[in-house]
Specification:
Strand content of chain B: 5-15%
Number of domains of chain A: 2
CATH architecture of the largest domain in chain A: 3-Layer(aba) Sandwich
Number of domains of chain B: 1
Low-confidence stretches of chain A: none
Shape of chain B: globular
Largest sheet of chain A: 7 strands, mixed
Strand order of the largest sheet of chain B: 1-2-3-7-6
Radius of gyration of chain A: 19 Å
Structural class of chain B: alpha/beta
Structural class of chain A: alpha/beta
Distance between the termini of chain B: 38 Å
Helix content of chain B: 40-55%
Order of helices and strands of chain A: EHEHEHEHEHEHEEEEHEEHEHEHH
CATH topology of the largest domain in chain A: Rossmann fold
CATH class of the largest domain in chain A: Alpha Beta
Strand content of chain A: 15-25%
Order of helices and strands of chain B: HHHEHHEHEEEHHEHEH
Shape of chain A: globular
CATH superfamily of chain B: Thiamin diphosphate (ThDP)-binding fold, Pyr/PP domains
Number of strands of chain A: 14
CATH architecture of chain B: 3-Layer(aba) Sandwich
CATH class of chain B: Alpha Beta
Oligomer: heterodimer
Distance between the termini of chain A: 30 Å
Number of strands of chain B: 7
Number of helices of chain A: 11
């Protein structure tokens, strides 16, 4: 499932927002796809769409609330609007407009939230969306997607351009390793195993822990898995790129063989993917679920690596959480 | 096209009276809901649905239809009543307003009732949706010929989103969008000029580079003429400020902001219906009730 170049000297890096930009251009082959942006066109990578499909691109200025209404009206006319800003502003500022005119109206507006997570870095807490998955996951009709790399971001963008549901796609600013192969194809939001620990003598691990995550932070999970192989702790890393609706069939099937679950995301531990998974297992297959994420704090300025360290998001931190499940 | 004969005015007047009666009856049946705004806007909705709109009540999703985007969703009783009288659904269904399982939700829900263009209630959302629709209409080179009427309250202009929308309407110069502002001067906490002054609203809108037409929102000739003028304005969008009397038709309700957000009880409704009947020259027999 993983890209050949991953963990090699040839490892490639791109930001998920770049994958989105490419996906939007290819989705634009459908003349019903239109795009709106709130004064951040280059930053959210809508520039290529703007250039190629100039008449279908709408620069709306810094009007996240009105942008939601425009997109809703466009969808009501039979179009597929992608509306983009930083996640902090959309869906951060315009949540009620999204609730009433997009989700309750049940129209296929595609909300693109860029610059999510602490990895936004130097801009600081005001620009680091850590609550957006929760905001969107709570809304009926809304589907929520978090690509793990640029390859998946492109695939998800192309996919949601074909659905008739309101959708939210969460993007990151920073470049991150390409984990999926170029020929990766989107499988309808199904969760999938990225990698499982290999026992060095071909035997069985005493313990097997499932690490379920979304977004670029899955790379840290893969590193944690490798670290724990040496300690005899088996880990299976799972990508759950669609947070809502959850692939509950996978969760049930997977639960049978494992000791416990560690969830990983660059989001508040409350309300995001970890919460969704903990909720599901509590009701359907009670077992230990430990969440890695930001623990009820705001972000701050710094380099992404410094912030990952400060907020407990590195491979080392994830490995500690995994040990706590087996210990 | 833009002028009405006396007979046409009389027919619209009678139609508006029927709609006002329906509003009172459905509100008293529901036991809650807004009274003043719906009564005040009855003439404008009547003019739209019985004179101005290009629409087919039996085929509410007809692609060529003009769109009515109700932004201040709380006045939806007037929209429901007008739609029922226009033939979108049965007048008897009006009595289900706000009931469990009803298609007539307390604030409009698009998916519940064919003929609603959008869901609304939280204020300030409508104009931006009308702009989005009209942008797509422009993308299709305005074929077929359609107009996008956005019905707005004056109180809701407090909302920042409305001003964002004014900026965008000016940017895109969408002359097919025709906002009609119900300038009834009341909102829940009192008179608009006490709660958060809007005046001079006309000057503000003209500063946004719109044509602004002020009309008597109870004068059918004014309403129809203003819409005609708006349609013929091709250089910049036209905004219609319709001066209306909240609670219009029932003297006890008229101009009193306390009737903004409540419904009449049975006794009050009886008086209200009597007033409405006397206004149309006691045509109706009181024993019919």
């Amino acid at each position: 499932m993983l890209r050949d170049t991953l963990f090699t000297i040839n490892q490639e890096e791109r930001a998920t927002r770049e994958g989105f930009g490419e996906g939007l251009v290819s989705a634009g082959e459908n003349s019903k796809v239109v795009a709106l942006c709130a004064d951040l066109t280059d930053s959210v990578k809508m520039d290529a769409f703007k250039e190629k499909y100039h008449d279908r691109f709408f620069e709306v200025g810094i009007t996240e609330q009105a942008m939601s209404g425009l997109a809703s009206g466009m969808a009501r006319m039979g179009y597929i609007p992608f509306m983009a800003s930083y996640a902090m502003f959309s869906p951060g500022r315009n949540w009620e407009q999204i609730r009433t005119t997009i989700a309750y109206n049940n129209v296929p507006v595609k909300i693109v939230g860029a610059h999510s997570g602490v990895s936004v870095g130097p801009d600081g807490a005001t620009h680091q969306a850590l609550e957006d998955i929760a905001l969107m996951r709570l809304l009926p009709n809304m589907e929520v997607f978090v690509p793990c790399d640029a390859v998946e971001a492109k695939a998800i963008t192309e996919y949601i351009a074909t659905t008739d549901k309101p959708s939210y796609i969460r993007l990151a600013r920073e470049k991150s390793p390409l984990m999926l192969p170029e020929n990766y194809s989107w499988n309808n939001g199904k969760a999938y195993i990225m990698q499982t620990s290999k026992h060095k003598h071909g035997g069985e691990f005493a313990y097997n822990v499932g690490v379920i995550g979304c977004g670029p932070i899955l790379f840290e999970s893969l590193k944690a898995m490798k670290e724990l192989e040496k300690e005899g702790i088996g880990v299976t890393v799972i990508n759950m790129p669609q947070v809502k609706p959850l692939d509950t069939a996978f969760l049930l099937r997977f639960a049978k063989d494992i000791k416990g679950i560690v969830t990983v995301e660059e989001h508040q531990t409350t309300g995001g993917l970890g919460s969704a998974i903990a909720d599901f297992y509590a009701e359907n297959h009670p077992m230990r679920v430990v969440r890695v994420g930001i623990e009820d704090r705001f972000g701050q300025s710094g380099k992404p690596s410094e912030l990952y360290e400060e907020y407990g998001l590195t491979a080392k931190h994830i490995a500690e959480k995994i040990r706590s499940v087996v210990g | 096209m833009h002028s009405l004969t006396d007979v046409e005015v009389q027919a619209l007047t009678l139609r508006a009276e029927d709609i006002r009666e329906s509003i009172i009856k459905m509100l008293v049946e529901a036991g809650s809901g807004h009274t003043a705004g719906p009564l005040g806007m009855a003439d404008i909705f009547t003019a739209l649905y019985f004179r101005i709109l290009n629409h087919t009540p039996r085929h509410p999703e007809w692609v060529q239809r003009d769109r009515v985007i109700l932004s201040n969703g709380h006045i939806v009783p007037v929209l429901y009543a007008t739609m029922a009288h226009a033939g979108y659904f049965s007048v008897t269904e009006l009595k289900t307003l706000r009931r469990f399982g009803s298609r007539l939700q307390g604030h409009p829900h698009r998916e519940s009732l064919p003929g609603l263009e959008t869901s609304s209630g939280p204020l300030g959302c409508g104009l931006s949706q009308a702009i989005g629709m009209a942008l797509m209409d422009r993308l299709e080179n305005h074929k077929p010929d359609r107009y996008f009427y956005c019905l707005m309250g004056d109180g809701e202009i407090n909302e920042g989103q409305v001003w964002e929308s004014f900026l965008l309407l000016n940017k895109y110069k969408l002359t097919k969008v025709i906002p009609i502002i119900d300038r009834n001067t009341i909102q829940i906490d009192g008179f608009t000029e006490d709660v958060l002054p809007l005046e001079s609203l006309k000057d503000k809108l003209e500063a946004f580079n719109f044509h602004v037409i002020e009309i008597d929102g109870h004068n059918f000739r004014d309403i129809v003429r203003a819409v005609g003028t708006a349609k013929s304005s091709l250089d910049k969008p036209t905004v219609i400020i319709a001066h209306t009397i909240p609670g219009k038709g029932v003297p006890q309700f008229e101009g009193d902001f306390r009737w903004h957000g409540k419904s009449p009880n049975a006794d009050e409704a009886k008086i209200a219906l009597k007033e409405l009947r006397s206004m149309r020259g006691k045509i109706k027999n009181e024993s019919n009730d």
